[in-house]
Amino acid sequence: MSTNLARHARVLRMAALAAGGFYVAATAAALLSLRGWGGRFVAATLDAGGMPAPWGACTAAAIALLIGAAMFELSRMLARVGRDRVFSPDATRHFRRFALLFLLASLVRAAMPAFVMAMTSMREGSGAVRMTFDGGDVVTLLVAALFWLVARLFDEAARLEDDSRSIV
């Protein structure tokens, strides 16, 4: 395996860990600032997408945890680049977990406001549900689905690599 590839993977691994940690920490600080923590140093606004603020805060926390876990799994996959085989079962498993967690975070971000608004509408008996979707949500869902497809392709590549090793 190329040492250049392993070096790039190490840099990307550190970037993934930093990005995931920063996202979780920034979300936690923002949510705490809504409760008065941080004083003049931290200020946040919560765009809950029409949801009540507690639901928006819970949604933001869930997304942050899913993104943090996804970036951790991505870093675990990148840690295996340069070791052993190109498509090791460990590496593909971690990438599959990354793709699944990222897809779940994207689904929560896109669907939770609509779900909460529908539940609120049913509870209040208004009958009308107004849902809006951002173009960014659609693109994020498409990218997450693409990651899931790539993860499945990696699984197939790992299977084919195992088959070719058993033949030789």
Would you mind describing this structure in some detail?
This protein is mainly α. It contains four helices and no strands. The chain is flat, with a radius of gyration of 20 Å. The mean pLDDT is 82.
Summarize the structure.
With 168 residues, this protein is mainly alpha-helical. It has four helices and no strands. It has helices at residues 3-34, 53-79, 89-124, 135-167.
Features:
168 residues; mainly alpha
Provide the fold topology:
Elements: H1 3-34, H2 53-79, H3 89-124, H4 135-167
Helix pairs in contact: 1-2, 2-3, 3-4
Structural class: mainly alpha
How many β-strands, per DSSP? 0
Low-confidence stretches: none
Q: Tell me about the largest β-sheet.
A: none
